[in-house]
Amino acid sequence: MATGNTGGREYSLVELFAIKFVLADVLIIALLLLAGPVYAIAATALIVIGGLGLWYLAGRTGGDESPDPGPDRALEDPETTASETDPVTTLQERYAAGELSEAEFEAKLDRLIESNERADSAGVETDDLSLERRG
After folding, report:
1. Going along the chain, which residue ranges are E strands?
2. How far, CA to CA in Å, does 61 sit from each of 13, 24, 57, 58, 65?
3. pLDDT per position as a tens digit, 9-21
4. Which sequence ranges are marked TM in the entry (predicted)?
5. For the chain, how many helices (H) and strands (E)?
6. Gap between the Cα atoms of 26 and 29, Å rounded
7. pTM higher than 0.85
8. Among 10, 62, 87, 111, which is most buried by a count of CB atoms within 10 Å?
9. 8 Å CB contact between 109 and 88
C-alpha cells in the first residue's frame, strides 16, 4: 500500500516523499558542514537514487491509494462487473433480475456444480465456488 501509518495519522505517498527529502536536506547540510563536500555529494547521490527507486516501485505497484472495498462492498456497488463476483452469485443475480427462467437457472447451476466436482476430483482448488450437489 502507498500510505504509511505513523502516530495515528495516514500519510500519502506525496507526503512521505516530502518528509524524506526534508530529512535528506538536513542530512546533506550536516554532512557538508561536519564531514566535507565529498560525503555530502555521496549522500546526495544515494538519496536521489533511493528516491528514484521508491518512485519506480510505487509506480509498479499501481500507486492506488483507494482501499479494497471487500466482498460485501463489491455486491453493493452497481459498477461491479460479473468477473469480480463468483459464478454462482452472478447466476443468482441474473435469476433474481428475471433474465433467466427457473429451468435455465437450474440447468446452469447444475453445470456449475458438475464443473466444481470435476475440479475437486482433479485436485484443482475452488475456493470461489464451493458447492455441494443436492440429493
Report:
1. 4-6, 9-11
2. 12, 24, 6, 5, 11
3. 787 878 887 888 7
4. 12-33, 39-58
5. 5, 2
6. 5
7. no
8. 87
9. yes
Report the C-alpha gap between 63 and 55 in whole angstroms.
9
- The pLDDT value recorded for residue 88 is 82
- Only one residue has cell 433474465, namely 99
Q: Reduced to 3 states, what is the DSSP secondary structure of residue 10?
A: strand
Which residues lie below 8 Å from residue 61, measured CB to CB, with a gap of 6+? 2
Fill in the amino acid letter for 53.
Answer: G
Distances from the Cα of 94 to the Cα of 50, 63, 86, 97, angstroms: 51, 35, 13, 5
